[in-house]
Write a structure and sequence with these properties.
The complex is a heterodimer of chains A (about 240) and B (about 260). Chain A has helices at about 10-45, 45-75, 80-115, 125-145, 150-180, 185-215. Chain A is mainly alpha-helical and about 240 residues long. Helix content of chain B is about 40%, strand content about 25%. Classes of the chains: A mainly alpha (about 240), B alpha/beta (about 260). The structure holds adenosine-5'-diphosphate and magnesium ion.
């Protein structure tokens, strides 16, 4: 059950609004970081990747502010019911977003290394497509959060399957390149970590969507989240590729 | 080997101690309790919460027929204690109140010694054969009231000379001295400071081992801290009743949610 009416203590409403505004600000920064990091990779733009690395500080600071504010709210207001769930979910979501920020920063770092190697045919555009999909999932998950929209949240959960499939395809592609020419191994390893990190961002977006469902209904979604990453079961035999 | 005590406690908590069915209470033309059904569990603390005037005290007083003492009050429906109708003609309200004890908002010790405050009930109910028996009952009750250590050296001193928190624990000891099965408490901490309140809450938690406790409280935090079951009353209706954890994390009725989160309904 969610409740839109106002608290008798109006400062409580202001506090809850402020902490959710911080989440939205964090979300905006993370979306930009993902977009810029993927663009920097494709365009081999070191300056832009440097900008992404620096922007992570602001994201980390916001996460800290969210946690401090949540602790203060718990101590001073003893939130219950949907208020309690709001406070619990902002803490969880801020952690999800902070992790996404870290992955974007890591992507930017690897771009700094990759620009000194010859490009792997087709890899960067595929990664950028995947990043775009994850960025969109994140945006929708945060929209679902603000609007308390469980339908939209469920849509995000199911889109994670697409990201997993994109990752599986890339994984196989990189294996092929590495087997064709061992000189590709270093670049492909970096690209693989990048793809894996973007796939993880998709998981965080999914986790945010699940928080929306918990916040709105009081229960975590029951059906297990659809999982499409099968690379953990992939044998390295050439005949499989 | 099985831990019998834990197993037993589990079973007890599922036993219904008091079962109320279609209870209506009227004060003249005022319809104060409307069609309330509830099952109060044994060895469990049940909290009644809700805005002032919603009928918490009225319903609590139905459970040991304290409303009989109010002329204009009329109670309808059934209230069963261990399956027996407490409003049956053959039930003696005085005996009933020994089984279903009550603790009030303001500590109200008798203007007598600490010892006599406790000994009063057991004496009139003939629970002690001799002085040694009575001494034992008094000590056991004061221990259960978590106040023995503080008063054992001055049992002859007047009960009214104790601090507010001590007086309230004395009144709880007095209520348990007659070996009741249910303890009703109407805002037992509202006249106490925060430390005395915590001591009484701790005591309530201990009492749960032996009694079924029903507490009316204005403090949401207190209900959350001491109870396992919570009932939310609103305008004479029992709106929601469930596990305390569920009521405070995920209430199902919008009126409950608005009340416990401090919203304008
Ligand atoms: N002795 C009484 N005589 C007449 N009306 C009463 C009496 N006691 C309570 N009421 C009325 O019954 C309703 C419920 O009161 P009460 O049970 O005291 O509520 P609560 O304990 O939830 O504050 C109120 O409208 C109150 O005015
Ligand atoms: Mg009252």
């Amino acid at each position: 059950m969610h409740n839109d009416s106002k608290h008798i203590a109006s400062a409580f409403d202001r506090d809850l609004e402020a902490i959710q505004a911080m989440i939205m600000k964090m979300g905006g920064l993370v979306e930009v970081a993902i977009k810029d990091a993927a663009q920097a990779l494709e365009e081999r733009d070191v300056e832009l990747s440097e900008k992404v690395r620096l922007s992570d500080k602001a994201i980390d600071q916001l996460e800290e502010s969210v946690n401090e504010e949540a602790a203060r709210l718990i101590a001073l207001r003893s939130p219950t019911a949907s208020d309690l769930r709001t406070v619990l979910t902002v803490m969880k979501i801020s952690t999800n977003l902070e992790r996404c920020g870290d992955y974007a920063k890591n992507l930017a770092k690897r771009t700094g290394v990759l620009v000194n190697m010859s490009p792997i045919e087709g890899a960067a555009p595929s990664i950028r497509r995947m990043a775009r999909e994850v960025e969109e999932m994140l945006r929708l998950a945060l929209d679902a959060y603000i609007q308390r929209d469980t339908g939209l949240a469920n849509e995000v959960r199911h889109r994670d399957l697409d990201v997993d499939q994109m990752y599986n395809a890339l994984f196989r592609e990189f294996l092929t390149y590495m087997m064709e020419d061992p000189r590709n191994i270093t670049a492909c390893m970096h690209l693989h970590f990048i793809a894996k990190n973007i796939e993880r961002m998709g998981d965080h977006a999914t986790s945010i969507a699940e928080q929306v469902i918990y916040l709105t209904t009081g229960e975590m979604p029951e059906d297990a989240r659809p999982k499409g990453d099968v690379t953990s079961q992939t044998a390295l035999g050439a005949e499989d590729l | 080997m099985n831990d019998m005590r834990i197993v037993r406690k589990d079973v007890d908590m599922n036993d219904t101690k008091i079962s109320a069915k279609k209870v209506q209470v009227f004060y003249g033309d005022t319809h104060a309790i409307k069609d309330v059904d509830v099952e109060i569990k044994d060895k469990t603390v049940t909290a009644f919460i809700g805005p002032s005037g919603c009928g918490k005290s009225t319903f609590l007083r139905c459970l040991n027929r304290m409303n009989d003492t109010i002329d204009i009050c009329r109670v309808e429906g059934n209230i069963l204690l261990d399956g027996e109708d407490i409003y049956d003609k053959r039930v003696d309200p005085v005996q009933l109140r020994a089984k279903v004890g009550m603790v009030f908002q303001r500590p109200n010790p008798f203007p007598k010694s600490i010892y006599d405050n406790i000994a009063y009930g057991p004496r009139i109910h003939g629970l002690a054969k001799n002085k040694a028996d009575l001494d034992e009952i008094v000590e056991k009750a004061l221990r259960r009231g978590a106040i023995w250590d503080e008063v054992k050296d001055r049992l002859d001193a007047p009960g009214t000379g104790l601090s507010g928190g001590q007086q309230q624990r004395l009144c709880i000891a007095r209520a348990v001295a007659t070996e009741p099965e249910v303890l009703l408490m109407d805002e037992p901490c509202s006249a106490l400071d925060p430390i005395a309140t915590l001591q009484v809450e701790e005591l309530i938690d201990e009492l749960r081992e032996n009694f079924s406790v029903v507490i009316v409280t204005h403090s949401m935090q207190q209900a959350a801290r001491v109870s396992q079951k919570t009932a939310f009353f609103h305008l004479g209706n029992l709106v929601e009743y469930g596990d305390t954890e569920q009521i405070f994390t995920n209430p199902q009725d919008e009126r409950t949610e608005s009340y416990i989160t401090g919203r304008i309904g």
